[in-house]
Design brief:
This protein has 137 residues and is of the alpha+beta class. 38% of the residues lie in helices and 36% in strands. The chain has one domain (24-136): Sirohaem synthase, central domain (Double Stranded RNA Binding Domain), CATH 3.30.160. The N and C termini lie far apart (54 Å).
Length: 137
């Protein structure tokens, strides 16, 4: 019985690793209480998305600070009432940041680094944005 359970656990682990490494999708839990992050990052088709517990204006300002901190160049912001995008080059990589109003104090941010996406770089930018958002509170 023990060998059977270990086999199932091993099979599940292999399948989980295959799904995560395929780049199709991924959910990464965030530690509770992380500076304004709602709880999960979702990585779909090269874009990492999460919700921030802050107004769109505060999140936009934190995104601008993040770009400045990362010495972004060729910054092209397009801001509308309930959404906006920022195209920027950071470390010779094109970055697209999409910011969208969800509720009064809930804002969705999606980040794509490069043409096909880069999980690690997107996560790093979200972490930096979260830090800057925490400083503004």
């Amino acid at each position: 019985m023990l060998k059977f359970r270990m086999g199932i656990v091993l099979l599940f682990g292999i399948l989980a690793m295959a799904a995560l490494s395929s780049g199709c999708w991924m959910m990464v839990p965030v530690a509770a209480g992380g500076a304004g992050v709602s709880g999960t990052y979702v990585y779909i088709n090269g874009e990492m998305t999460t919700d921030y517990n802050a107004s769109i204006d505060k999140v936009w300002a934190a995104a601008e600070k993040t770009i400045a901190d990362m010495q972004g160049t060729d910054v092209e912001p397009v801001r509308e009432i309930a959404q906006g995008t920022i195209n920027v080059v950071i470390n010779d990589e094109k970055v697209l940041i999409k910011i969208r109003y969800k509720e009064k104090n809930l804002t969705t941010v999606a980040i794509r680094v490069g043409l096909f996406g880069n999980k690690l770089s997107s996560k790093m930018l979200h972490d930096k944005l979260s830090e800057n958002l925490a400083k503004k509170k």
